[in-house]
Automatic annotation (TrEMBL):
Residues 28-53 are annotated as: Disordered. InterPro entries: RutC-like_sf, YjgF/YER057c/UK114. GO terms for cellular component: cytosol. PANTHER family: 2-IMINOBUTANOATE/2-IMINOPROPANOATE DEAMINASE RIDA, ENDORIBONUCLEASE. One of its GO terms (molecular function) is deaminase activity. It comes from Streptomyces cupreus. This is RidA family protein.
Length: 174
């Protein structure tokens, strides 16, 4: 169920599945500590510089979200699913040190690298920005638009995390 009159919405109004559909429910997933040049416990520690190589203006939240979304993709594949099978998503964001609010824009840019980046009318892949760089092909072309909630929280389980995400995916009937 998509917003009326929009050919490239970021999220669905809601999701319907048929009866007797097997579901996969992830735990809350945060970013891995993949940046050894950053101090332990810092938000920068939980980024992967290889994901943002060549991009300008990438925020720490965006960089962490890219790691989380890649982790989700890998976990889904291990369970016989893909990001195209995701039907709901809950994202928890913390505000970066010194910021007034969570970085929703950075989260949304990262999200579009893995979700909602194929126009539903033209079926063409939509170029998406990473940071302030010129938009380009996403990391994963995927037309799925999960029903999604994103909220700012006071803290997350691991010092330095700014992003934690959980997803529900539906197995396709075979």
């Amino acid at each position: 169920m998509l917003p009326e009159g929009q050919s490239n919405p970021a999220i669905a109004n809601g999701v319907v599945t048929g009866g007797e559909v097997a579901l996969y429910q992830s735990s809350g997933l945060g970013p891995s500590a993949l940046n050894p040049s950053a101090p332990d416990g810092s938000p920068e520690r939980y980024t992967d510089p290889s994901l943002t190589e060549g991009a300008q203006g990438v925020t720490v939240t965006e960089a962490q979200a890219l790691v989380v979304l890649r982790n989700i993709k890998n976990n889904l594949e291990a369970a016989g699913l893909t990001p195209a099978d995701v039907i709901t998503m809950k994202c928890y964001l913390m505000k970066p040190p010194g910021a007034e609010t969570a970085d929703y824009a950075g989260w949304n840019r990262a999200y579009r690298q893995y979700f909602a980046n194929i126009d539903l009318t033209t079926h063409q892949v939509v170029a998406v920005p990473m940071g302030t760089s010129t938009p380009r092909a996403p990391l994963l072309a995927n037309q799925a638009r999960p029903a999604r909630a994103t909220m700012e929280v006071a803290s997350l389980a691991v010092k330095g995390w700014l992003v934690e995400v959980e997803v529900t995916a539906a197995y396709r009937r075979r």
